[in-house]
Amino acid sequence: MILMLLVVPTGAACMQGASLSAENPSVPPGKVLYIDHHIHRHGEALEEGYPVIAIDFPTYTFDNETRTLSGLLTFEVNQSLIAVYGSGLSLSGDAGIGAATDLSGVYSIPYEADDGLIIRNITPNGTARIEYRNTTISLAANETWQNVSVGIEEEAVFGGNETGQQGRLKITATDTITNYGLLEREEIENTTSLGAAAGSG
User: Fold this and answer.
1) Is-above-0.70 flag for pTM?
2) Where along the chain do its domains lie?
């Protein structure tokens, strides 16, 4: 298996200087931190017969130029909201097609997401201290952490195959966590249809 770890800026300058020692988050009034975690799995068939998977489409989008986050919100955007956490999985190649994404509201710290990521702290300038897969990650605003792994997966062939044949697939998994920094609370929009939210995220 091949592993690569990267922490790179995603925007212009990274905001620096705030301590990560505070126990409670300190988000400026009217601001909300936006953190996104996405896993992309690209497959290359090594043997015929690996099952093709199709998953749902994205349910939110983020425009980094207008700093607007739009999606199907299942949480309340109010004065107690300190962060929004986006998570998702997308497939390409022989691994399948589609993407499944979700937005969650964060009202207190620490916050543990369903995918195992934990937001431990948030500072006034938007730096987040995160724990993920036994790794502590500090991301300033507009920084990205990325892990790329390559491995082989096997799966029993569907369709009533009686020989016990296994399909083999080379998977390149790109695991990305991005801190998009602080957004204005009013720039978080609840869309009324999946079609309006699909496209990215």
Assistant:
1) yes
2) 2-197
